[in-house]
Amino acid sequence: MIIGVPKEIKNNENRVALTPAGAAELVKRGHEVYVQATAGMGSGFTDEEYVSAGAQMLPTIEDVYGKAEMIIKVKEPIEPEYELIREGQLLYTYFHFASSEALTNAMLRNKSVCLAYETVELPDRSLPLLVPMSEVAGRMSAQEGAKYLEKTYGGRGMLLGGVPGVHPAKVLIIGGGIVGTEAAKMAAGLGADVTIMDVSLKRMRYLDDIMPANVKTMMSNEFNIRQMVQDHDLIIGAVLIPGAKAPNLITRDMLKTMKPGTVLVDVAIDQGGCIETTHPTTHDEPTFVIDDVIHYSVANMPGAVPRTSTLALTNATLPHAIDLAEKGWKQACREDNSLKKGLNVVDGKVVYKGVAEAFGLTYYDVDSIL
Prior knowledge:
Keywords: NAD, Nucleotide-binding, Oxidoreductase. The chain is an alpha/beta fold. 33% of the residues lie in helices and 16% in strands.
């Protein structure tokens, strides 16, 4: 198969979808790998390393899309890429379709095959290609939240862990999945007073067992959220409904009950956000303020730590990339039900229910196109 790796062009996205080691694995199996020049530089991989691994370099993004049968990316295509994608071309990347009607319509129009990292799902309902970036984003959410609590950035001027004789900051995490767990580990490690809210008693029992004494659990519901946001300094939204738009659990009217300088970090922003007042921001302009509350909602948080993120992501995505290249996407998905669940849009049809429901589109059973 002919595989293309374009340079990411989303704002401050420094990750790359394939490392030189990954390119070598594909090349030794007889596949052709084309990498856009300087695509790996942001993650610390030189063009020379790719060439040594057997990949071929192409000068422009147009060249890569024009050559490849399968495109491997990190982030969803953005508008300048829409017209470069060909009918039947396989795109293997994060899409988060339910948060963008424009992206969904563009991929329906070009009749490409869109296999989304975030909806590849194992029988135990875990999301193996989302986990690595959820781990990074969860840890970063506490790190970024701690920074924006500093007065320099408009926060309350609080040190997350406090000092002897001074109470630590109070951190509220809504969602006890991978993001919430990693956020809690980081915040607790810095000495904060942490509460994780979730709707699953089973999950909260697990978290109660594994977390240190400065982490507590609480049932997530509207009444409890309204009470808790009033006296917490950092609030992290870590809610995920696979493939679907995140629910708004913190509403606009709740902001007025928060203390001035409270920091909100919405890690669910890729799926539309779980805080009503957030919208996607960039690493160039990561925050905005509403009602004296700081909102941080960067849509590609792991892009700020690209070396760590690229290595973590490609550890998970490469085995499936090899399967897709070896067998073709149809055969690979027929043989691997987990990979089949990654198909979202195929040949102008929506084959993932959460995406169809988000925009009122016709849903087609994925087995009908395999």
